[in-house]
Every structure is written in structure tokens, then in C-alpha cells.
Amino acid sequence: MKFTALIALGTAVLVSPAFAGAIETASNSQVAPQFDIVRAAVTAADGNLSFAIDVSGAAGSETPKSIGAVLDSAVFAYVWPTSLDSSAVGFDAKQGIVALAVTAHPDFDDTPKYDEDGDGNAANDGKTWHSHWVVLVKDQACPAGLKVQDVAPGVTVKMPATAPGVPLLLDSPDVRPVLGGSTVTVSVPMPEGGEAMSFDGVAAGLRVNAKMEAPLLCVTDVFKVASGDLSLPGKVAP
Questions:
Q1: I want to staple 60 with a disulfide (CB 3.0 to 4.6 A). Which of 73, 142, 143, 179 is the partner?
Q2: 97 and 137 in contact (C-beta within 8 Å)?
Q3: Rounded to two decimals, what is the model's pTM?
Q4: Is 179 a domain residue?
Q5: CA-to-CA distance for 168 and 26, rounded, in angstroms?
Q6: 9 within a domain of the structure (yes/no)
Q7: 1 in a domain, yes or no?
Q8: Contact yes or no for 102/131 (Cβ under 8 A)
Q9: In a domain, 221, yes or no
Q10: Would you say 78 and 101 are in contact if contact means Cβ atoms under 8 Å apart?
């Protein structure tokens, strides 16, 4: 075997299966290392989609500082925007950009059915990294021009069975992310159309409205986008 072929083989062995077909981007010293995305990928196997983000630092090493109140509190998130239709994850059709998000926010808990930290209290786990399906839409009232879609008072919309009961298009399925070293991964049951979807990777900050009104949950900071332009160039790899 030629030396060049040996190098190629060695390189292939070093690539984690979680990052097959990844969107890759150079590290940026101007971005905090825990949010400096260098790879984002989605792979399909055994009826599941596995989402992965790799950063140049320690993934999940920083969570927002608690302010002791829900209003005006912050959220940190690793996000995979997708081309899925919102009906694929339990909402009404054509509601906006469907994204899987791994989030942490110490001032509130939006996974009331699950005790992520195992302390016997299911209502105090916001600080523990956890997963959501969300629907994002444009809103120029938000600093980054995006928000989680609000549900207006008195309006009935289709929601997944595991939705937490907040007035947002947000679901809280019991799918636990794994954060270790530089990597965030989370595996979910295959949604309809999942194998054919496209995706991107984003590290972001969000904030709850200080007046508890719409827009209730704004994207305030986009720390880094894997593609650079949110063009969703990623394709699901087998």
C-alpha cells in the first residue's frame, strides 16, 4: 500500500462516526472556545437521528449566570436548525424553522416531567443541559432577528404530548444530551423526513422577555454558525 493511502486510512480511522459528513469550519479565536463550533453533523442509524457539535473548547463548560428570576434570564444553547416541517415533530405544519436545541438556563425549568439531575425534584433542572425541539421564526424585535415562536393567549395550536405547557412552540422530549470533552451529542427517534433533511449548527444565547410578553424568548446572541450563513448545507450521513 502506498504511503499516501496509509495516511488517508489513518485519517479515516480518527474521524468519529458521530461526525461523518460533518460541516467543518475553522476555529475562531474571537469566539469563546465553548461556543466555537468546528464541526456539526447528523447521522442516521437504527431508527434514530444522532446530532453532534464539536467545539474548540470544553462543550457545556459555561452556563448562564443566575439572576434569581425567570424574567430577563438567559439561556445558552447548542442548536441544529433543520429543513424539517414542524408537523414532523408534533406541531402544526409550516410554522417556521424546526431546530433541535440542547440548552441550559439556571433560572427556570421547562422540562417539568423529568428529573434530569436525579435529585428527586423535577422542577429544578434548568441548569442541567437538556433537549428541546423548537420552532424558530424571524422577529426584528429580537436582537438577533430570531425568536422561538410565540403562542398567543387564547389561540389553540397543535403541540406534542411532551410539550411543557409554556406559550411557545417548544417541546421537551425525554432525550438526554451527552456533553463530554469538546463534543455535544443527542440522539432522537427518527422524525418523518429526517433522513432527507438538511441542517446547520449554531451556538447561541437567548433571553426571556423582561415583561413576560411576546416576543417571549428571543435569540440575543449568535456566537457561531457552522456554515457561516445559516444556509443549512449539512446532509444526514448513514
A1: 179
A2: yes
A3: 0.92
A4: yes
A5: 34
A6: no
A7: no
A8: yes
A9: yes
A10: yes
Residue 232 identity = L
Q: Which DSSP letter does residue 36 get?
A: -
Domains in the chain: how many in total?
Answer: 1
SS3 of residue 42 by DSSP: strand
Whole-Å CA distances, 124 to 17, 80, 176, 216: 34, 25, 16, 21
3-state SS, 178-229, equals EEECCEEEEEEECCCCHHHCEECCEEEEEEECCCCCCCCEEEEEEEEECCCC
Number of Cβ within a 10 Å radius of residue 183: 18
